Amino acid sequence: MPRGRLPIMDLKTGYDVEREGSRIQHDLWPLDEIDPKNVKFPCCLVWTPLPVVSWLAPFIGHVGICREAGAVLDFSGSYFVNVEDFAFGAIARYVQLNREKCCFPPNLAGHTCKHGYRHTEYGTALTWDDALQSSMRYFEHKSYNLFTCNSYSFVANCLNRLCYDGSMNWNMIAVAALLMLKGQWVDTMSIVRSFLPFTVVLCLGFVLVGWPFVVGLFSFSLLLIMWFLLGTYCVKNLLES
Hints:
Protein name: REVERSION-TO-ETHYLENE SENSITIVITY1
Oligomer: single chain
Keywords: Membrane, Transmembrane, Transmembrane helix
InterPro entries: TMEM222/RTE1
Distance between the termini: 58 Å
Transmembrane segments: 190-211, 217-235
């Protein structure tokens, strides 16, 4: 064989890889098992109750999203994203996501979702961790606000970059609903510490104040729900996602 020339088989292999790169995604290697003891939740959304806030409204908490290796990322303060140090306590609830439901386009023609141009404009990724890293850089320039830009906003941003489940409409409400409907509790103690403070506050308030306290507490919860619903679906760009 003349010097400087590659074997025909090598040339064909390289050609095939280049030609098929637009439709073949990167290999999705097997994930490690979920390991709550060592705080490893590969490709999971995770949740924990918020001090004080969850005592009054137990459906509200703090969320994060995990890398493929299991490390937790969470937006817990202005211009700051935690890595492997989940704020506000141990993980209580989680849901593992399927990477095969994500869109990892190598180019504009390689989208597996129906939102090609919109997805590209928003920001795409080649891997799960790449999407999380892009959202992390974006939120390192964001101010934290419990009502408009919080941990749910960060997770929604990640899911939109992944175009998870073919959707570009992930927001605070959608993330909360996914965790509430499909989330699994880590253990029995996680359930106890999530609802015991609320139960204690409710009982004490009823004993000391009576029904007006109960009505006021549930009115507070209703107002929070209405705020996030209106901010998400009625007032454009009010809530970050």
